[in-house]
Fold these 2 entries.
Entry 1:
Amino acid sequence: MIVGEVRQEECLDLLIALNSGLPGMCSLHANSAREALVKVCTLPLLAGENVSAAFVVPTVASCVDLVVHLETDVNGHRRIREIVAVSGRVEAEVIETSDIFVAQGGQLTRAAGYPPHGERYGNAGIDLADLLKAHR
């Protein structure tokens, strides 16, 4: 499932679908990958009083694997700024993340993080270890 832009309470429907096991992705506006994750946790709360952060935060942590943040350069070109892995763990109501790639000096550089569910890449025919090693 692909949702072109998540802006309001429809994010709850997206989370419910992802939580049921459907693969998917969406786009939304945020200033960083971590801010995007916070936004995905906040938007479903617009659906009403019966939706709480106690439900949303762990659901996001378990449904979202990666967050890719793009920025627009001075020429209007979009470039990947960072790729963050979502571990699935929540501590003190904050979803744990780790950097996989970060922008340094205009280049995307491999960081120490590792994507969750590595076996899914292999099932799709992608050698994840080789892919990550190639970008060191």
Entry 2:
Amino acid sequence: MPPPLSNPITTTIFFLIIISFPYTSHALIDTQGLALLSWKTTLNTSTNVLKSWNALDPTPCNWVGIQCNSNAQVTAINLNSLDIQGELPRNLQSLEFLNSITISSTNLSGSIPREFGEYLELKLIDISDNMITGSIPSEIFNLAKLETLALNTNMIKGFIPSEIGKLTSLKNLLLFDNQLEGEIPKSIGSLASLEVIRAGGNKDLKGVVPEEIGNCSNLVMLGLAETSISGVIPASIGKLKKIQTIAIYTSLLSGPIPDDLGNCTELRNLYLYQNSITGPIPRSLGELKKLESLLLWQNGLVGPIPDELGKCTELVTIDLSENSLTGNIPVSIGGLLKLQELQLSVNQLTGSIPLEITNCVALTHFEVDNNLLTGEIPVSIGKLSSMTLFFAWQNNLTGSIPSSLSQCENLQALDLSYNQLSGTIPSQMFLLQNLTKLLLLSNDLSGFIPSEIGNCVNLYRLRVNDNRLSGTIPSEIGKLKNLNFLDLSNNKFVGMIPKSISGCVNLEFLDVHSNGFTGGFTETFPTSLQFVDMSDNRLTGSLSPNVGLLTELTKLNLGKNQFSGEIPPAIRSCSKLQMLDLGKNGFSGQIPKQLGQIPSLEIALNLSCNQFTGEIPPEFIGLSKLASLDLSYNKITGKLDVLTNLQNLVSLNVSYNDFKGELPNTPFFRNLPNSDLAGNRALYVSGAVVTPADKMGSTGHARSSARLAMSILVSTAMEYLSYLEFTQL
């Protein structure tokens, strides 16, 4: 006789019965499974991630995310990183042996169920990285066995209840990145087993670090960063003999760092940056022999850097920048052989860079800029072969740039600007093939740019402006295909800008103003250029129609040269142009109508001190955004009516031309000073001819009448330079 259900017809009938009576299947699963299946029905899973949760199983022990003991009793739910949208379960009372709930990174929403407080065997609750809202229910604090409470990275609001002190078994309290408010309860001091507390990223968490925190004698990690915690660091923190990390950065701490911190001999990481901490750095920090990271930047610390830091031989990172520290850089720092980052920028440190610093052979970042350092850069700095960044700008350093820097073969960024360095730029410097940023501006450097510059194939920014450099630009500069920013301005360079510059295919910023360059407007400029300043040189010839190829150009300054001829109509192709300065040249002919067809011209248009003739093109009506227009010292005729539509003008100079007719009767024109209208004999206001009392020289008058316009230009240029300085390495 065949066994039951072996007949295909019988089997089909059986499954039809199961399908027709779904509740019959529940008889096969225990009460634990029923509770879990009931929760599953409330979820909105985008994929069938809980497919294994099958009512035909006698127990849920083989279901995904479920763990049981040897008696088939559910002990853990682990549904980490599954897409199970819905709310947390409220009906798991039948899971009497449940000791762990991990439902993190699952897109759950809703509030924390009060029923969680009924699962008395729980040791771990991890519902982190969801979209949980509401407050922390007080019932949770009935869980006497709870060791880990991870509620971080949600949208939980409200206070940290004082009942938290009842969780005497708690080891890990993770509340960071929520919307909690109020103060840290003093009852936190009752948690003698607590090892980790992280409540950072709650902007409205305020009050002080409670003195009672010192009773948490097993604490290893204290994290209260990016909160509104204020007041002083309590001296009781020195009782935390096991503490390894203190992170209370970007908060509102004030007062001094307590000397007692030196008792935390297990401390490895001290992060107190971006607060309002005052007073000196305690010498007791020298007792922290295991300290690896000391980040105290952007506070109000004063006094010297203690010599005792040299005893912290495990230090890897020191950042004391943006304080008011004084005195010398301690020689003892040279004993920190594991040190990789030393950042002392923006203080009031004096003295020289100690020779002993070059013993820190693991150093990768050395930043001492914006101080009052004097003396020379140590020749032995070449020993720092791991160094990738050296910033010493804005000091009073003297002497020459040591050629030994070429031994720092990993160097990527060097900034020695705003010092009193003299001598030449060592040609060996340009053997550094990893160099991306070389800033030597505002020194007293002389000599040439060596042809070896072509070796720096990764160079991105080169600024040597405001020195006494001379000679020509080497043609090898065209090998720098990654070059983005080139500033050679205010030097004594001569000759022509090499045609090879076309090889700098990523060049966006070119400033060579105030030199002695000759020749014409280079026809092979890279089309990537956005900013070009060639003013105050000896450039001649006409403006090539190839200027129209520079379609990314936003600012072009060719003023104070000897250009001649007409402005090519191709200028219209520079459709992103915001500023154009062609003043003090020998341009002639009519002003091309194409200038009026560049609606992006909004900062300034300067055509002064040339030989333009004809009338203002009617197309100028399209310059509706223009703020400054200077047409002075030309031979332009006609009326000014076309300019009445330029509603954004704040500066207009049309003096010393041949304009005629009545001055437009608008508030802007009525308020123009006579100096900006003078020298137009046929121009009149209500019957009165506008004539100058006495004629100034063209150079002096142009300077006087364009002050407001230049103010706009300088302000905009400085903003542009500032942006590039601080956003590009």
